[in-house]
Give the backbone structure.
Amino acid sequence: MRCFPVLIFLALFRFDGAAFDPANQDDSLSLVRHFQPRSRPLGPGFHEAGFEPVQGETISLMGGTEVFQMQDSGHFERSLHRNFPEHSLKVRNLGWPADTVFRQQRPMYFYTDVGDSQQGSIPDSRKKVTPGTFILQFGKMESLDGIEALESFTTSYGKLLTELLKISGRIILVQPSPFPEDGPAGSLAAERNSVLEDYREAIRKLATKHRVISVESFDDLSARVDSDTEGSSLQRAILRKNKLWDQYYRPTNWAFLFGDRQHVPSSRDHRDANRRWFVEEIEKIPPLIAAEEAVIRDLAKGGENE
């Protein structure tokens, strides 16, 4: 009998927690919140000749695990800078493990103007990403739901593109890579790739419908024609920048930064409860990123290379 009130409390807590979303987040379009709003879309789109970046623009990479892991090698970004050395490009990897067109789940209050209601809490004050070229790679994980989910995939991807096009007309859809035949699920690769090809064809049609570019792989955007070797000065600078960006974009202990634990003592300076030490630390990162990007620009233009 003594457990009965506890069970009632837990049941009520579960019900309230499932029904209440203080930030009113829509995980199917959360990527849209990452970018600076614009009064009109950035344009025009690409020429028929293909991908040509704009001087000084920011290129945002969006997708699931494969895109997320691209920051660990820096290969695509290194090639991008070598192919367009005078463009002073910035690259922001917004990939997140498990991201799909159906859901891009982020921590509560992530890039929202609405913050926690606790006294002393502040909304996410990080600077949003400057619109430029958007490069998206979706479809591989979604294809595991089978051909019967293709229509839902097409609808959700189309909605995401429609919203992103309100920010920038410069969008590239990279086709999902095939499932490997030599992996732990190699026996399923042929069947899965057969379904995946239907998803790839749907992506091509989406690109045509929305007047954006579709390419088969990231190599089509920036063929690796540079002469850098692994561990070059340029690659090391890119990896240092990527680590800083990862700390800024995917900070640990989010709840203490802009989440629902901002009011607790460990979220504040122990000598001055009005100081948010974690916020101060995060705000130190953008200048460090800018400094690394200055090094990247110099190396891309032919600066000293080891």
Remarks:
- The mean pLDDT is 88.
- The chain is about 35% helix and 5% strand.
- Residues 28 and 49 are 32 Å apart (CA to CA).
- Residues 20-227 form a domain with the Rossmann fold fold (CATH 3.40.50).
